[in-house]
Amino acid sequence: xxxxxxxxxxxxxxxxxxxxxxxxxxxxxxxxxxxxxxxxxxxxxxxxxxxxxxxxxxxxxxxxxxxxxxxxxxxxxxxxxxxxxxxxxxxxxxxxxxxxxxxxxxxxxxxxxxxxxxxxxxxxxxxxxxxxxxxxxxxxxxxxxxxxxxxxxxxxxxxxxxxxxxxxxxxxxxxxxxxxxxxxxxxxxxxxxxxxxxxxxxxxxxxxxxxx
Amino acid sequence: xxxxxxxxxxxxxxxxxxxxxxxxxxxxxxxxxxxxxxxxxxxxxxxxxxxxxxxxxxxxxxxxxxxxxxxxxxxxxxxxxxxxxxxxxxxxxxxxxxxxxxxxxxxxxxxxxxxxxxxxxxxxxxxxxxxxxxxxxxxxxxxxxxxxxxxxxxxxxxxxxxxxxxxxxxxxxxxxxxxxxxxxxxxxxxxxxx
Lengths: 212, 194
Description:
The structure holds 2 protein chains of 2 kinds. Chain A is an alpha+beta fold. Chain A is 55% helix and 11% strand. The relative contact order of chain A is 0.08. The chains are: A alpha+beta, B mainly alpha. The interface between A and B is large, with 35 and 49 residues.
């Protein structure tokens, strides 16, 4: 003979609804039943819960046909399937374009990946303070404010130069030097000379490309 | 004699239907629908208090079943799984409607207790059932669900915990408070007690 473990009153009281509905099993059911036999408060409560159980089970359920409900569900599923097919058809026609676009983007990405990044050519990078390279043949000159056209022409004659562009909004002219003056040493000297010339406000090796 | 538990489906049969539903079998869905229609309708109706919401809820549940039958993991019985979906749908429908809550808030609580006291003297169980409807509306939706699942569907507290996705102790506590409130609202419950 097995003996069920004793339950506290609170625990047995708590489990009474499941004793009433028959879902307690094994030792737990035996323990609750054993407690109820010895406890007048639990017997009273058990009686009340049995009445509640009967009353709940006796309550009327809604008398509604399942058929109409399923017909609605069936139509809803048909509708969902139809919109899903429509959606697939609509987007299926656009699919080749989407695939082509995606493939194009992929190819572009691969090309970009293998294209070397532009390197900063430090040898060609120059500022106005940088010494001109040996093949420099173009200067930027801003004439002094009071310099006349004759004075400007006279200076150009002195350096064997020819205005090829300008003036810019700031009054800068691009001046091409004659071939005899286009060596590095000559240009450096010339820059020094021009910088000291009162007809010149600014001079430097040109950053512009030589016009053809 | 022990009371029999209210069971409305056979798990083996439900599993077979679920497998066919997973393959897109609409007839299997109809069979499962017919099995669960009234249990679900009643359950959702008891929680929401509105038949229109209950009907909507049943179809919502079955749509979930149709779309997710393959993901049923078998961690519980099919009925527990479906009633769990129904429980969540019912709470969601109730929260979105709110009108039911407003209605029960305006119900005359004192009248109900007084009528129940008169009933206790007259000893009429039919009237007790009518008053029970009204008294249950004064419980929270979660408490109503536990009472309904215990006393109408015969669920164990473990099954209710699985349906409501909460610990078993929460189920016991909800039932304890529901019982206390119903006793207060329905003194007729205590008549003829030992």
